[in-house]
Amino acid sequence: MSKLVNIIIDGKKIKAPEGANLLQVSKDNGINIPSLCYHKKLSPTGACRLCVVKIKDVNGLVMSCTVKVNEGMEVTVFDSELEETRKHTLDYLLAEHNDHDDGTYNDELRDWVKHYTLDDSKNRRYPTIFKDLEYKIDDSSPVLTYDASKCIKCFRCIKACDEVQGKNVLSFSERGITSHIIAGFDQWSESECDGCGECVQLCPTGALVEKPHRDKIQLDKIEKKVKTTCPYCGVGCQIELLIQNGRIVRSNGVEGVWPNDGRLCVKGRFGNDYVHSPERLTKPLIKRNGKFEEASWDEALDLIAQKFTEIKEKYGNDALAGYASAKCTNEDNYLFQKFIRMVFGTNNIDYCTRLCHASTVTAMLKSIGDGAGSNSIQDFATTDCLFVTGNNMIETHPVTATYVKNGHYSGKKLIICDPKWTPLVKYADIWLQPRLGTDVALLNGMIRFIIKENLIDKEFIEKRVDGGMDAFEELKQLVEKYTPEKTEDITSVPKEKMMAAARMYATSETSMIATGMGMSQQVTGTNNVFSLINMMLITGQIGKERAGIDPPRGQNNVQGATDVGCSPIIYPGYIPVTDEENRRRIAKLWNVDYENLSAKPGLTTVEIMHAAYDDKIKGMFIMGENPMVTDPDLNHTEKALRKLDFLVVQDIFHTETTPYADVILPASSFAEKEGTFVNSDRRVLRVRKAVEMPGEAQEDWKIIVKIAERMGYNLGKYNHASEIFDEIAQAAPMMGGISYERIEHEGIQWPCPTKDHPGTATLFLDKFNTATGKAILNPVEYVPQTEKTSNEFPFIMNSGRILYHYHTATMSRKNKVLTDFANESYVLMNRGDVVKYDFKDGQKVKVTSKQGELETTLQASDHVAEGELFMPWHYSESRVNRLTRSDLDPFSKIAAFKLTACKVEKI
Fold it and tell me: Which of 361, 488, 518, 286 is nearest to 424 (CA)?
């Protein structure tokens, strides 16, 4: 913390941190010095020259944005000379500026022009010459328009792209009065711009304006601005929705609050048109004679209650199951799991986390007692070394990646471990490219090297690891065989790179791990994460700030859904269903008999489908999930769904799953309800209603309550979502101190057990959440994958996400901006294999595995190794999970999405 110094601005005595920016200090103290090029998120430029001030004992006028305050500084901000200078500067700017205003953008320049009465041309000295300059207009981007005639060359867009987003796409072209901004080498559409819109948000004029809805939006007709949480990935970006005529017409990042401080990606800024899609479900639908017919809510809910009750009475409680949703709010999900446990009377509840990070959570719970990320998202910029493994962060968690890039540019170290080239590799100090499925061998090799080089933290092991050095010795013996040479032979990673990465991670003052689905979605997923944790523990890279392990969550509320109990093995707050004392506590909270809450662990996602296929599960309630895209071995999933006696799907669109339903219920999107999400760094964030639901759609939690009532159960009398959250805070002790009132301005990170607790930015500073308070080493051997290539299936398929779409793409493909960027399925194949097998880039191919087949387009690429393929799984017309197998990790029950033996044939 910088010491405070005393300064005087226009006679006002002010205390400010030594070295703080003078312009910002003035603004913070209510002294609004005119400026255009300055923004508090950017380094000062001094380009616009509006912020001139006088400083005692300093000659001439100085730009306040370039001055750091020091003790005794006396500043004059407003006098006649300064004001006349500013007016002259503005007048000169206007001479080459197109000041036509169409009402579609905020214009800081226009505000100052009015302030200095230069909006009246009679008060201007200089003639307007911009029409003679043939300024460029670039309208080629799907997301924005650049009009050079409105550009004041302030550098804010360039610095926003460089310093905030870390992309370095923008620059100036030409010189002097005709200089203008370009993306890449010229055209925006031909550049590396990915459409995040940071430049638009920070532009002080109308030079850069959002293209979507510009023909409709008028800022003076905006009805309201609603702060809420982005519905896409698990970063939890805070967004402000602008509402006009009852529709979302623009989305801005909210500055000054975590986790994003105004940053957004292309989806968060331009991906919300799906809310108003004409394809939204608007009325309940009942399948009659194989066709869906519109029905009243009473008719649909009565039928659901009747059918579920019949199944329960005929086959027993465990013949029913439910899928909760990582898209829905904590309040929706909490009542859903309460419904499954109280009304169905079973613990057969799960959701897509089982298909994403179940192995990560399983390993973390066993090793350190908690499955959530140990750090804050902003720590990705300040940790001394970041080890990213199995996570294509720039595409999957773009805003988190901006912090990683910020760290890179400030000199922090970055190690990428991924079989596939990802955009983050461009910023990496070391890229480890192991063969698919060899992660344990690589990590054991790194652990052995760390031990041999005596880079362990012996004090940490002795004090904070269960069993101390005895446990360490067991690990040491196990990894002894993983010599650099053997590790290279198994993984194909050059031993020099492996050793350099191990040294870099172990010797950095602080190191963090970001682990993704590349690690978790394997039959060895739990062991993969055990190995990561073992390396972390022996080096003492946890239990201090800016060190730990963080699995960025894939969906907006995948963290929260598990936090509130949507799991077959835990209640809200991660308390096991077998814990009798907690079941008694929950029974009292829910006002039910303790005996009615089952102590039997339920079935996981894939197990539920297996049980349906085996006629053991007879009825299902699916809320906001799409297993006909997300589940492995979709041919098997399809057969399982067809065998159900009764299926209810509650969603906002028809999906690939709804054709198998007996009843479809129209639900609410994130923009149509109150609630909360929990992001990847355990931050509980508000979701706020911005627009009305279409047709007869209803909020998810209200639908659940009504079904329960018709089945004879009272889930509770709730008038508002906040009352449900108050109950969550009672059920989950880690959220006991959080309320809507406390998170009105900014989210709070759990654990937050009491009303006066500030929340927890970093976990495990004092102890781990295990029974002993100490972490546990879990030594594991490398086991070769059972899925191997053969003459018939010579490739191994990998799969994942891309920037412009999101999981099943139910939402993202309803947005023209996003489909303009990417809307076709493809498979990546190494260029050597393209030549070897006589394929051509861009040709149609059929990809086949033992489980199924699909058709797609082949792309020759250096991003994958020889013998390996990659496909995005957003495209329903080429569902990758037609190919994947349902083999499970024995500990977490996650499926092996990342390794599937395939063949590729020309069509």
Answer: 518
SS3 state of residue 778:
coil
Residues 6+ apart with CB under 8 A from 8: 14, 73, 74, 75
- Residue 621 CA to residue 578 CA, distance in Å, equals 24
- Tell me the C-alpha distance between 141 and 802, whole Å: 19
pLDDT at 31: 96
Cβ 160 vs Cβ 198: under 8 Å: yes
Question: Of 733, 684, 715, which is closest to residue 575 (Cα–Cα)?
Answer: 733
Give the Cα separation of 907 and 904 in Å (integer): 10
Q: How far apart are CA 138 and CA 149, in angstroms?
A: 11
Query: pTM score, two decimals?
Result: 0.95
Helices 495-507 & 439-452 angle (0-180, nearest 10): 60
Q: Read off the pLDDT of residues 317-347 as tens digits, 9 standing for 90 and up.
A: 999 999 999 999 999 999 999 999 999 999 9
The Cα–Cα gap between 243 and 597 comes to 44
Tell me how far apart the alpha carbons of residues 447 and 783 are, in angstroms, rounded to a whole number. 17
* Cα distance between residue 372 and residue 361, in whole Å: 7
Does residue 880 surpass a pLDDT of 80? Answer: yes
Question: What is the H or E stretch that residue 394 is in?
Answer: helix 393-396
SS3 535: helix
Tell me what pLDDT residue 796 has.
95
Other CB atoms within a 10 A radius of the CB of residue 682 amount to 29
CA 241 – CA 229 distance, rounded (Å) = 10
Q: 892: pLDDT confidence band, cut at 50, 70 and 90?
A: confident
Q: How many angstroms separate the CA atoms of 231 and 671, rounded?
A: 9
Contacts 24+ apart (CB under 8 A), 309-315: 309/711, 311/618, 311/619, 311/645, 311/646, 312/344, 312/345, 314/618, 315/618
How far is the first Cα of the chain from the last one, in angstroms, to the nearest whole number? 65
Tens digits of per-residue pLDDT, 442-481? 999 999 999 999 999 999 999 999 999 999 999 999 999 9
Which residues lie below 8 Å from residue 440, measured CB to CB, with a gap of 6+? 524, 527, 528, 531, 780, 781, 782, 783
**Taking residues 688-707, what's their average pLDDT?**
98
Reduce the DSSP state of residue 285 to 3 states and report it. strand
Q: How far apart are CA 828 and CA 870, in angstroms?
A: 5
The CA distance from 553 to 542, in Å, is 20
Residue 759: count of CB within 10 angstroms of its CB: 18
pLDDT of residue 367: 97
**Nearest one of 693, 619, 694, 631 to 657, comparing CA atoms:** 631
3-state DSSP assignment of residue 685: strand
Give tens-digit pLDDT for 712-741.
Answer: 999 999 999 999 999 999 999 999 999 999
- Residue 273 CA neighbour count, 13 Å, CB half: 15
Half-sphere exposure (Cβ direction) of 846: Cα atoms closer than 13 Å: 7
Which residue matches tokens 């940790």? 383
Can you give the pLDDT at residue 100? 86
